[in-house]
Design goal:
It is built from 21 helices and 26 strands. The protein is α+β, with helices and mostly antiparallel strands and 729 residues long. It starts with a helix and ends with a helix.
């Protein structure tokens, strides 16, 4: 009987799959449904249904220029996309999530929607966990430009039973899911008050809403999308921001009171407080305007404040870049820096100056390339931050390959010759001839510096990434100048290098030792891949790097007998290394905890965090990643310190850890709520600091203990209040 039921179920799934619309196939994406103005498909976050009853899919829209679709509450016109599921297999329900929309204001009409490209995350509840899924989606939507065209389309999408490994489309879904507003006070956004006043000219039909909001980090471009009783229309807010940028007052015109099914003070309204890319959703019932709010309206300064001086931020960026030279991420590059100094012993002043200027140019140019990449990602709506490239396996493979080649170069396995016109200018101490070698050294220093944050660097980067293209480019150029400052100083005073002892046999030995230091960096990069992809993938990539180094050594010992054939084999192996993360993506390793700290951490959960604070507990949040060396130093030196460890493991303290080794929209949003875009990041919450105390990038025992004391200062009052309420009356 059980066998018959199994066969019947399989037959039903087979027939259901066959009867869905043409083009259906198992995989992470359906075929496109194309019109003259739009394209639409269904994509999946995973390659299989996994073992839970919930899946995350996405409605992926691509729209022609000037065309748009609508948000869940479209405003004065339009209707939002909807999804039906008739004829589907193993689908109980579907629910659309709505990323933050754009506002369109035309001739007094206000609408909300999306242009160009958008993914609407689709939560699917299945009838049976672990079974395959066949979704037959009936999708209705309205696309508008100068004219509006309603579309009805049917898309078939199937997903097999199997492990819920991330699909190729997972990042695309996460990109838009990260801008879906959260429920309640979150991401540092809060609505403090909402009141209304009837309009004197037409009190039965018109009114004004007054909304006061606050933010932990300064507002950039706040807005509010209002959803109220049927019949009401809400204008675009007039926004005033306080001088510190952390408080906003919005005046929102309301019309249609005489047509509404409820008055403003009788029914809660839904307010989506937006400050892209952050968004938080609240349900509030307005009250009549009070004297305090009226006074605030009359005294609140208008316009967005200028904020911190650009010159101040540029100075902080230069200082942060200088300090970055001392961070542990840059230590592997010290081998190249050291050789860059000692290798110039006895050289002429001009050669030294030119070589160090070339290294400085490599650093600054690399920072500008990073800035340009972040500008492109930001304009595309992607999550951005300092060091996020270390979240992507391909970048780690590329860096492991580069470090391997640099180590082989230091060991003397090969030399790279540039054109004679360049090499005559100066010879690199790393056997990479010409200024190009020094330029590459500076570029490598920049790339290895990015997983580290430093004092002042986080402030400058946060300021830049929250603003426009000019600020991002200027701040990153200043960071590059700071990191390159030691090179610039040697270029200014070449005698520091020329008075070093002349290179000799001692330098060959030093080169080999420092080559092993770079090889250690390669091992570290591969170890991150073991966390991000799998241990098997890391072993494969590590083996490929060893084979590449061996082939280069053999190539040298055989006096280039096979010529270009050897380097062709190296190129093929490099391509295979880049293919490993995609082909060996199962069985990701769990993050290994520091033995002493094992058992200390609980997973990061913002809802649980707020509940712990309400209960009078202190919460220590650590945002970390395997590729962040400064994070590991903080844990080893400060968090693992006996005094700090005992405080964090005490009964009244909760230690939460957010792992950013792989991309996470939740962690990205959390960091942006503090105006931060890089790690390490630590914050302490408690009754005395419900909004959190952000700690500096480099922790110290005294700062952590002080923050814990401050955050816990209200715990005694909470405890007393509880004891009073629990006493018998």
């Amino acid at each position: 009987m059980v066998k018959m039921l199994s066969v019947t179920r399989s037959f039903i799934l087979f027939i259901c799959t066959l009867t869905l619309s043409s083009g259906v196939s198992y995989g992470a994406a359906s075929d496109w449904a194309k019109t003259d103005h739009t394209q639409l498909r269904i994509i999946s976050q995973t390659n299989g249904t996994g073992d839970t009853d919930t899946l995350t899919l996405g409605l992926h829209f691509k729209l022609n220029d000037h065309w748009k679709i609508y948000w869940r509450s479209p405003g004065d016109a339009g209707f939002p996309p909807s999804v039906g599921q008739d004829g589907s297999y193993n689908v109980q329900s579907t629910e659309i999530s709505w990323p933050l929309p754009e506002r369109f204001s035309i001739l007094g009409f206000e609408t909300l929607g999306y242009t160009n490209e958008v993914v609407l995350p689709l939560k699917v509840i299945m009838d049976k966990a672990g079974d395959a899924l066949a979704l037959n989606a009936q999708i209705s939507y309205l696309a508008c430009a100068e004219i509006c065209i309603p579309y009805d389309t049917e898309l078939a999408f199937s997903l097999p039973a199997g492990p819920a490994t991330p699909s190729e489309e997972a990042h695309l879904i996460n990109r838009f899911q990260s801008t879906v507003p959260t429920k309640g006070e979150n991401l540092g956004l809060r609505i403090d008050n909402i009141q209304f006043r009837a309009d004197k000219t037409d009190p039965t039909n018109l009114a004004t809403l007054y909304l006061s909001a606050s933010s932990q980090s300064p507002f950039q471009s706040p807005d509010a999308y209002i959803e109220g009783p049927e019949g009401l229309a809400f204008e675009k807010p007039k926004v005033s921001i306080s001088s510190d940028g952390k408080r906003a007052l919005m005046e929102i015109g309301v019309s249609g009171l005489k047509y509404a099914k409820a008055t403003l003070d009788q029914a809660p309204i839904t307010i989506t407080l937006a400050d892209h890319p952050r968004g938080a959703e609240f349900n509030k019932t307005p009250v009549l305007l009070t004297a305090d709010m009226k006074a605030l309206v009359e005294t609140q300064s208008s316009g967005v404040p200028a904020g911190p001086s650009m010159l101040v931020m540029l100075a902080l960026a230069v200082l942060g870049g200088v300090i970055l030279n001392l961070m542990p991420c840059v230590l592997p590059v010290l081998s190249i820096k050291l050789l860059g100094v000692v290798g110039h012993g006895g050289s002429d002043t001009r050669t030294v100056r030119m070589s160090f200027l070339a290294s400085a140019a490599g650093i600054i140019s690399s920072f500008l390339v990073l800035a340009l990449a972040l500008v492109v990602l930001k304009n595309a709506g992607l999550a951005i931050g300092w060091g996020i490239q270390f979240q992507h396996p391909w970048f780690l493979v590329a860096m492991a390959l580069v470090v391997t080649l640099f180590a082989c170069n230091l060991w003397g396995f090969f030399e790279v010759h540039l054109p004679s016109s360049v090499s005559e200018i100066g010879e690199s101490t790393t056997h990479v001839h010409g200024l190009g070698g020094h330029f590459m050294t500076g570029a490598l220093a920049t790339l290895l510096a990015t997983p580290c944050s430093a004092p002042f660097l986080g402030t400058a980067v946060g300021f830049a990434l929250a603003r426009g293209t000019f600020e991002i480019m200027a701040i990153f150029a200043a960071l590059g100048v700071g990191l390159a400052l030691p090179y610039l100083l040697v270029a200014l005073r070449p005698s520091f290098a020329t008075k070093m002892p002349k290179p000799g046999k001692w330098m060959v030995i030093l080169r080999r030792i420092l080559g092993f230091a770079l090889a250690g960096t390669g091992v570290w990069l591969v170890s991150i891949l073991a966390i991000q992809v799998s241990q098997y993938a890391a072993i494969l990539i590590g083996s490929i790097m060893v084979v590449i180094a061996t082939m280069i050594y053999v190539h040298k010992r055989l006096h280039r007998r096979y010529g270009r054939l050897d380097w062709g084999a190296v190129a093929i192996l490099s391509v295979l290394a880049f293919a490993v993360p995609d082909t060996v993506a199962n069985g990701r390793s769990e993050r290994a905890a520091t033995p002493k700290l094992e058992g200390l951490w609980t997973p990061f959960d913002q809802k649980a965090l707020r509940e712990h604070v309400k209960a009078g507990k202190v919460v220590f949040v650590d945002v970390t990643a395997e590729w962040c060396i400064t994070c590991q130093v903080n844990k080893a030196v400060v968090i693992g310190n006996e005094v700090v460890y005992q405080r964090l493991s005490s009964s009244g303290t909760i230690a939460m850890q957010a792992d950013w080794t792989r991309p996470s929209s939740i962690i990205t949003q959390y960091l942006s709520s503090f105006g931060r875009y890089g790690i390490p990041f630590n914050a302490v919450y408690g009754p005395g600091a419900p909004d959190g105390i952000a700690l500096p990038e480099l922790l110290s025992q005294s700062e952590v203990l002080k923050a814990l004391d401050t955050a816990g200062s209200g715990a005694m009052a909470v405890g007393k209040a509880r004891s009073i309420t629990q006493q018998p009356h």
